[in-house]
Design brief:
Layout: E1 4-9, E2 14-21, E3 24-25, E4 60-63, E5 68-71, E6 74-75, H1 76-82, H2 85-94, H3 100-111, H4 118-125, H5 133-144, H6 157-182, H7 196-205, H8 216-228, H9 236-245, H10 251-263, H11 270-281, H12 287-295, H13 314-330, H14 335-346, H15 350-354, H16 361-371, H17 379-399
Antiparallel strand pairs: 1-2, 2-3, 4-5, 5-6
The structure holds coenzyme A.
Length: 428
């Protein structure tokens, strides 16, 4: 059987044969389908890219029906159990797990770039005292482009590697500064004796002690959370990174666009919304009433449902298992009981079952962040830190793909036909 698709245009009776490769047809092959020579040709209409692949990728594999997530072929549960964030960041960026020598070299290289230019610190000091940390992160990422003029030379692999190091190394510093600024505490400089997550906790929480003491259980929990958030193939922010990067802008500006995409409540803002929802519900006995309102269309059950996972979200499973290790150190988050009750009721309810709505990664991550002492409005920032390596991997793949051009979708125009201008005194 040939790997082709035969189409019949019933408007003309003509038949067309288009190639099928890797389970897809090329949308441009539809353009030959025309009623006459003046016809532009057939397009596919796909709002929100529900069934359109915008690239070929070797980075992340997801099977939403089976609840599978793999980075470069490695199952997420193995990475979460055995690896650490910087190891996984290397894997996602360069395609293979680093050898011991590459690992050491990578960690040293990252440590060289953890500090921010002092002017950038001043830039961040300029934000209003109650500025949302994610707004500060988005803007500061964009501001980085003004410090590294050479970043524009995106066709040079050495230049790309340098910006990769800078982005991965500086994003925790920017994130922590945005937190310190929002609560009026002085910024804490990076401590390169510590691990990536240990140093992040240091920059977040160090007070007057000469050396910040990292709790290993919390450091590990944060590392696992970071691993789970590294990449998720063509999600809204990865798509923003690629689309904006496709105009050949520098990676800082593209990453700022990706972070802006992540800010929205339907994407990286969801865990913030989950916590607000749990606080609003207030107690376990109010859960049935809340579920009733969701089913009546008065809002969504935040942290439930996923565009891709229609069985379960493997990241949610890992986080739920990890929660106990964190709560052993921090004490149980009182909102946990409400979350467990919501999950229990929703998973038995026809409304959620028939729509294949299961807890996603954001349902439990917020509870853990809160237990770590991280305030709700920092949650999307926590997501952005590890996702930065995923964004760069997506960007690198896009920049080096000879098939990619500036991203520019088509539209189906349904507006007015041509009409003549009406002077203001003649308008009705
Ligand atoms: C993630 C999300 C945006 C995916 O959306 P999607 O794939 O476009 O799914 P749709 O919005 O088409 O939803 C399909 C159906 O399920 C319902 N639905 C989806 N998520 C829901 C939720 N969290 N609570 C209640 N109903 C939900 C929709 O109302 C729709 O019902 P209908 O067919 O009766 O109209 C969506 O599930 C959502 O808004 N979830 C809450 C936010 C969230 O947790 N985001 C984090 C993602 S990691």
């Amino acid at each position: 059987m040939p790997d082709t698709l035969t189409l019949t245009d019933n408007r003309t009776g003509k038949k067309y044969e288009v190639a099928i490769k890797n389970g897809a047809i090329r949308a441009m092959d539809l353009r030959q389908v025309k009623v006459d020579d003046a016809d532009f040709g057939l397009m596919s209409y796909d709002p929100a890219f529900m069934n359109t692949a915008s690239c070929q990728s070797k980075i992340t594999f997801i099977d939403g029906d089976k609840g599978i997530l793999r980075y470069r072929g490695y199952p997420i549960d193995q990475l979460a159990e055995k690896s650490n964030y910087l190891d996984v960041a290397y894997l996602i960026l360069y395609g293979e797990l680093p050898t011991a020598a590459q690992h050491d070299e990578w960690i040293e290289a990252i440590k060289l770039h953890t500090m921010l230019h002092e002017n950038l610190k001043k830039f961040m000091e300029g934000f209003h005292y109650d500025a949302h940390p994610m707004g500060m992160l988005v803007s500061t990422l964009a501001a980085l482009s003004t410090y590294y003029e050479e970043a524009k030379r995106i066709s040079d692999p050495q230049v790309r590697r340098m910006q990769t190091l800078r982005l991965v190394a500086k994003i925790p510093t920017i994130a922590a500064y945005s937190f310190r600024h929002s609560i009026g505490r002085p910024y804490v400089y990076p401590d390169n004796d510590l691990s990536y997550t240990g140093n992040f906790l240091n920059m977040m929480f160090k007070m007057t002690e000469p050396k910040y003491k990292v709790n290993p259980a919390l450091e590990r929990a944060l590392d696992v959370l970071f691993i789970l958030h590294v990449d998720h193939e063509q999600n809204c922010s990865a798509n923003a990174m690629r689309a904006v990067g496709s105009s050949h802008t520098d990676p800082y500006s593209a990453a700022a666009a990706a972070a802006a995409a992540l800010y929205g409540p339907l994407h990286g803002g969801a865990n913030e919304e989950v916590l607000r929802m749990l606080e609003l519900i207030g107690s376990k006995d109010k859960v049935p009433e809340f579920i009733k309102r969701v089913k009546a269309g008065e809002g969504r059950l935040m942290g439930f449902g996923h565009r891709i996972y229609k069985n379960y979200d493997p990241r949610a499973k890992i986080i739920k298992q990890m929660a106990d290790a964190v709560f052993d150190v921090t004490g149980k988050n009182p909102l946990l009981d409400i979350a467990l009750e919501l999950e229990r009721i929703a998973l038995q309810d026809e409304y959620f079952v028939s729509r294949k709505l299961y807890p996603n990664v954001d349902f439990y991550s917020g509870l853990i962040y809160q237990a770590l002492g991280i305030p709700t409005d920092m949650f999307p920032v926590m997501f952005a830190i590890p996702r930065t390596s995923g964004w760069i991997a997506q960007w690198e793949e896009m920049v080096t793909d000879p098939e990619q051009k500036i991203a520019r979708p088509r539209q189906v125009y349904l507006g007015a036909g041509e009409r003549n201008y009406v002077p203001v005194d003649k308008r009705k």
